[in-house]
Write a structure and sequence with these properties.
Mean pLDDT: 87
Number of helices: 2
Number of domains: 1
Strand order of the largest sheet: 1-4-3-2
Low-confidence stretches: none
Number of strands: 4
Shape: globular
Helix content: 10-25%
Structural class: alpha+beta
Radius of gyration: 14 Å
Length: 127
């Protein structure tokens, strides 16, 4: 990464409350940042599918925000966005929490999207 890759106006903390932002806000920011690579698709916000998770926030104890591409079981490629979260009193990541995904039709496109999403997530973490 170069210095230009680490610049973003998006913050993981709400200025008014000091709380971490919602998963929905993060997914919207990833969509906005990656719009040119999404080919008309968008990242789906997993919390929108479950009423109990609707206002879910980025966990306080997250260790890393991550993005990765994976081949679909029946078709296409998926790029997931989520967090590694500390488990119990362990100082290292314990569980992965999926925030959302986008579907693309080629490994090359999915890889490019996954890399760009990861650049954004890294910049957000450093912001």
């Amino acid at each position: 990464m170069n210095p230009q890759d680490t610049v973003t106006g998006f913050s993981l903390e709400e200025k008014d409350s000091g709380k971490n932002v919602t998963v929905t806000s993060l997914i919207q920011a990833v969509n906005a940042h990656c719009k040119n690579l999404l080919q008309g698709e968008s990242f789906c916000d997993r919390t929108a599918w479950d009423e109990d998770r609707k206002n879910e926030r980025i966990p306080k104890r997250f260790r890393s925000l991550i993005s990765f591409a994976i081949e679909g079981e029946s078709e296409g490629w998926y790029v997931h966005v989520g967090a590694m979260v500390a488990f119990g009193n362990r100082p290292y990541p314990g569980i992965y929490i999926d925030f959302g995904h986008a579907k693309l039709w080629s490994s090359e496109d999915a890889y490019a999207l996954g890399m760009e999403a990861q650049k954004f997530l890294t910049a957000v973490r450093w912001n």
